[in-house]
Amino acid sequence: MIYECHGHIILDSVAYSQAVARHKNNVDEAFVRKNLQTNANYGISYYRDGGDKHGVSVYAKTIANEYGIDYITPAYIILKKGHYGIMFGRAFEDISEYRNLVSEAKSLGADFVKTTASGLLDFSKGGYVTHPSLALEELREMVTIAHGEGLAVMIHANGADNIKRAAEAGADSIEHGYYMDITALQIMADTKAIWIPTCVTSSNLLGSGLYDDSVLAAIVMNHKSAILEASRIGVTIACGSDAGASCVSQGSGTLDEMEIFHSLGIDPTLGNMELSDRFRRS
Ligand SMILES: [Zn+2]
């Protein structure tokens, strides 16, 4: 059984905004079916989506069983206004709006909540993360509300301080987790947050000509060291490629990510199973 623990059925691995715009008025059902079929062809039978605001992942969930895929989705990202994720999500300004977005996602069939504690890496320079950060107390309240609704929480977080806050707030999983440090890993080991490092989002860009390879190579090398350290201290790690992201194709991207785990001597099977158990809606 092959797990894709972090994918985007809405994306085509080329251009984010055009891929999202394709579904602006109506879900492009043929596109979704094509992506599901590609995943099935690669033997993928579990797919945890990151959500979108056009109902694409909600639609995919209704037909994924035709392709033998156990598919789960947060419906859409629930983000704080002005923070990262508006292309895939809906924003709240205060906690009552957050509650309403959680309820609405749940009524659409969401299996879990996805939010963002930071932005993206800026691949043109190492060490820099875009967008504002969320405060610990706010994250904690958001996680508590989601858990109260029986929903696990997936938190997109890059930068050690953002990762620490997300884990301390009770995140069930930390997505990406670039610029990790040992303290953040220790907190994750204590809180049992599962890490989905999405290594190929950086390593597959090497040689693409999109960014400076020396900056990318340093990012990839540090990320791999952190993954090894995580494995050593007992952080649960799961395999998710960010399928659909730039240079990460549906299906083959998942195998690329698995290949990185294997090259580091890490078997993600148990982590993948733990993640799929934890993110099943209770
Ligand atoms: Zn993603």
Mean pLDDT: 95
**Shape category:** globular
Query: Can you list the strand order of the major beta sheet?
Result: 6-7-8-9
Q: Please give the count of helices.
A: 11
H/E series: EHHEHEEEHEHEHEHEHHHH
In angstroms, what separates the terminal alpha carbons?
23 Å
Oligomeric assembly = single chain
- Cofactors and ligands: zinc ion
| Poorly predicted ranges | none
DSSP strand content: 5-15%
Strands, count: 9
Largest sheet: 4 strands, parallel
Helix amount, in percent? 40-55%
Q: Mind telling me the C-alpha Rg?
A: 17 Å
Overall structural class, as computed from helix and strand content, comes to alpha/beta
Structural account:
- The model has no long low-confidence stretch (mean pLDDT 95).
- It contains eleven helices and nine strands.
- It has helices at 16-21, 29-41, 56-63, 95-107, 136-148, 160-168, 182-191, 200-203, 213-233, 252-263, 269-278; strands spanning 2-7, 44-49, 70-72, 77-80, 89-92, 112-116, 152-157, 173-176, 194-196.
- The protein is globular and about 40 Å long.
- The chain is α/β, with parallel strands linked by helices and 282 residues long.
- It has a four-stranded parallel beta sheet, sandwiched between helices. A three-stranded parallel beta sheet has the order 1-2-3, sandwiched between helices. A two-stranded parallel ribbon has the order 4-5.
- The structure holds zinc ion.
- Zinc ion is lined by residues 6, 8, 50, 242.
- The site of zinc ion (ZN) has 4 residues, from loops.
